[in-house]
Specification:
By secondary structure, this protein is mainly alpha-helical. The protein has one domain: Alternative oxidase (Ferritin). The chain is 69% helix and 0% strand. The radius of gyration is 17 Å and the shape is globular.
């Protein structure tokens, strides 16, 4: 079922938006945010009824949604949401996937995390291919201000927080042109994959807030490099 859900999303993105990269990324980022909203909703429900309290999980998932929000803002700045039909499709797909993931997370949390692992893995592949095919053109274009604010000039606490396999403040990417921006987005997706893998671990202490007092360099993995996605996912 999970692979079917991901397959439908991939079909829409790859086929309907084959020659329109920025609207394609806009749809991808709109839908990619909603599973994190679903996780937060269910975790808050558990806290409300006194069943489960996991503050680190709430913090990390919110940071993940914050990261995806900035990916979305970048795509909007690049014109990805200019057409109403693209906004209509993305928003209605996101609403559908939100309720699907809420139900899945209630009955099978690891499966819900596996769903997002596959989505983020597809996002990594999509951005990696785009970078390879458009390197020269992207390097000639300036970075959007929203990307500069997020990756370099803003409050980087939330940027560090979603990367549970990297020691806080150890990743400070360049953002000098549009190519750098897409490299950063691609590498963000790689970090999401690793966080989703950690969330599925039997020993859930593997998933810690990077700013937690107990988090140390020994908790972090090697920083994701292009071509290593499959090994990380496995």
């Amino acid at each position: 079922m999970i692979r079917l859900l991901v397959g439908i999303l991939v079909f829409v993105i790859n086929v309907l938006y084959r020659d329109r990269p920025y609207p394609r990324f806009y749809v991808l980022e709109t839908v990619a945010r909603v599973p994190y909203f679903a996780y937060l909703s269910v975790l808050h429900l558990y806290e409300t009824v006194g069943l489960w309290r996991k503050a680190d999980w709430l913090k990390v998932h919110f940071a993940e949604s914050w990261n995806e929000l900035h990916h979305l803002l970048i795509m909007e700045d690049l014109g990805g949401n200019d057409r109403w039909i693209d906004r209509f499709l993305a928003q209605h797909a996101a609403l559908l996937y939100y309720w699907i993931v809420v139900g899945l997370y209630l009955v099978a949390p690891k499966s819900a995390y596996h769903f997002m692992e596959l989505v983020e893995g597809h996002a990594y592949d999509t951005y990696d291919k785009f970078l390879t095919e458009n390197e020269a053109d992207l390097k000639a274009q300036p970075a959007p201000q929203i990307a500069i604010n997020y990756y370099r000039d803003g409050d980087l606490y939330m940027f560090d927080e979603f990367q549970t396999a990297v020691v806080a403040e150890s990743r400070r990417p360049a953002v000098d042109n549009l190519y750098d921006v897409f490299v950063n987005i691609r590498d963000d997706e790689a970090e999401h994959v690793k966080t989703m893998v950690a969330c599925q671990a039997t020993d859930t202490t593997n998933m810690k807030s990077p700013h937690a007092p107990a988090f140390a360099a020994s908790d972090a993995e090697v920083v994701f490099a292009p071509g290593e996605q499959q090994a990380v996912a496995e």
